[in-house]
Amino acid sequence: MFKIGLQMYSIRTLEGNLMDHLELAAKLGFDGVEFAGFGSYSAAEVKEKLDSLGLICMGTHTGINLLREDLPGQIAFHKEIGALSLNCPGIHPDCGEDASDEEKLAAWKALAGELDAIGKAVTEAGMAFCYHNHSFEFAPIGDTCPEEIIFDNTDPAYVKVELDTCWIENTGRSSVEFMEKYKDAMHLLHAKELTAVGDPTAKVLGQGCIPFPEILEEAKKLGIGTLIIEHEGTEGDVAGDIREGLLYLRSLDK
After folding, report:
1. What is the pLDDT of residue 98?
2. CA angle, 200 then 205 then 207, to 5°
3. Measured between alpha carbons, how far is 207 from 202 in angstroms, rounded to an integer?
4. Is residue 199 classed as helix, strand or coil in its secondary structure?
5. Spans of the chain below 50 pLDDT
6. If we measure between CA atoms, which residue out of 221, 222, 223, 230 comes closest to residue 249?
């Protein structure tokens, strides 16, 4: 059985503060959460609330600037809240859109080296370190792309994949094929629905075009035990849509 968490960004527009939102995640039936910031709350306050609700901190989305500015502090905060992983979302390296393929390749390789060093420190502290993709990492650079450059130039023991199903499938690439290619680095799945290739308009899980039955089967094959639901829709019954998506994933987990 998969452990299923909620990316807290999904309920950012709902009333209440972070503690209220954690209570909602527990009420909806999630096993844990992935944070997208903590507001002004201390690690001790976050940990106390998680424990009181029986929720696991499956990870966080922590920007590269925070990791560059204070990696020891970020590691200490994450350890105190009991985070299982520290996940870095989409980074644009220091090269412009008009850069040559050679310049882009060099910039992404340099970023891969930086991620490797960060991942080594996080791993040695007892947590996993993941890179979370969007769609831009699949834009071609010669015969490769940024996402492949990252995972072709990092140690899978230190830098792991948190694969966002919406953003990869939005480019026409296959989640399952990518998972198989980089199976040594696969660690987490961001389960997010896609309306159609090229149209990432938010949809309830199971109502778009993502092949979740095949993706979850591949996840089981690779020993991935955790799924994180992210729902970017902000209209209508957001909590109800998220709950429906959770029930859909659980229906596939047999």
Report:
1. 86
2. 80
3. 10
4. strand
5. none
6. 230
Q: Which residue has the tokens 């080594």?
A: 120
Over the stretch 71-108, which tens digit does the pLDDT of each residue have?
A: 999 999 999 999 999 999 999 998 877 899 999 999 99
What are residue 117's phi and psi, to 5 degrees? -65, -40
Distance CA 134, CA 146 (A): 11
User: Cβ–Cβ contacts within 10 Å for residue 240, how many?
Assistant: 11
The pair of three-digit structure tokens given for residue 46, joined into one six-digit string = 């976050």
According to the model, what pLDDT value does residue 97 have? 76
Q: What is the pLDDT of residue 152?
A: 98
CB atoms within 10 A of CB 21: 19
**102: exposed, middle or buried (Cβ count in 10 Å: 0-12, 13-18, 19+):** exposed
Structure tokens given for 222: 């690779």
